[in-house]
Specification:
about 290 residues; globular; single chain; mainly alpha; about 0% strand
């Protein structure tokens, strides 16, 4: 019947889009819609195909229309759609609307804790870096610590907010001391932040001693984690004024594929070496390579 044929046309449109044939995709999708007008389920599936196409081609305005249409049809209770909508709005620098979408996603009671954490991290990033709202940033980190109470990476980010935005050194030091206490006897240094905690409190000798432990640990890590550890080492050595070591570790991080033009330009941990000629050369190299790859 017409419904079966309509679904066949829709299935064909899926095959066409996956093969990169945009013209044929639109033709079959429209034919499916005409054969069974008013079928909400079919029409939603077609809009989902549109969303895939717009996402692949980075057509953000059209993608937003597709997502809003799908949400209106059947997605009010689908947190992933609101999360994706938030991502699109964030790319468009519509930050207030982005966090509103993320809030809707969280309000749906997400069972997957990793998904919930990732949404909260994105919100914290927007509130802290774009909207400059210290209290809402801290609220996001508080929610993250409810999910993972001993996450020292989250604690460190919170401590920086208290130091840089709230100018509350007492609260910041409480958090930094908590990090050191948690990590006092750890052997797996993959996600350690004690070196940064020591550095933020001006205890540079202890920060460097802990970082030397980290430097030895790097050789045990896989390629991706090795790059992250090199990058963190570069940040630490920059903070404590060891420019040559900071540059050396940053170059190693770049060699391992960690470090983007955006992070090099905006990471405050590199403020102490930003005028260093070697740092400028690394930043130019990374940014030029990214521009050429576009």
């Amino acid at each position: 019947d017409s419904l079966d044929i309509a679904y066949w046309e829709w299935a064909t449109s899926m095959i066409e889009i996956r093969g990169g044939n945009e013209t044929e995709m639109w033709k079959h999708a429209q034919k499916a819609r005409e054969m069974n007008p008013g079928n909400i389920m079919l029409d939603t599936k077609i809009w989902q195909q549109y969303a895939i196409h717009y996402s692949t081609n980075n057509e953000l305005d059209n993608l937003l229309v597709a997502l809003d249409t799908i949400i209106a049809r059947e997605g009010e209770d689908n947190y992933k759609l609101h999360d994706t909508r938030g991502d699109v709005l964030r790319q468009q620098k519509r930050y207030e609307e982005a966090v509103a979408s993320y809030e809707k996603a969280l309000a749906m009671g997400i069972d997957n804790q990793d998904s919930k954490k990732w949404i909260l991290y994105k919100m914290a990033n927007i509130y802290g870096k774009e909207l400059k709202d210290a209290d809402k940033t801290i609220a996001c980190y508080d929610s993250l610590l409810v999910i993972e109470p001993t996450a020292t990476s989250t604690m460190y980010q919170m401590a920086k907010i208290y130091l840089r935005m709230k100018k509350d050194t007492i609260k910041a030091n409480e958090i930094l001391n908590r990090i050191i206490e948690i990590e006092k006897d750890i052997e797996d240094l993959t996600n350690a932040y004690s070196q940064f905690a020591f550095a933020q409190m001006g205890r540079f000798a202890e920060a460097e001693a802990f970082q030397k432990r980290m430097d030895e640990y790097v050789e045990k890590a896989d390629k991706t984690m090795k790059g992250v550890l090199y990058y963190n080492a570069a940040c630490l050595y920059s903070i404590i004024g060891k420019e040559d070591l900071a540059i050396e570790k940053l170059m190693s991080a770049i060699d391992e594929g960690i470090g983007t033009c955006e992070t090099l330009k905006n990471d405050e941990d590199f403020n102490n070496i930003r005028e260093n000629d070697s740092f400028k050369a690394i930043e130019k190299l990374v940014c030029t390579a990214e521009e050429e790859d576009k």
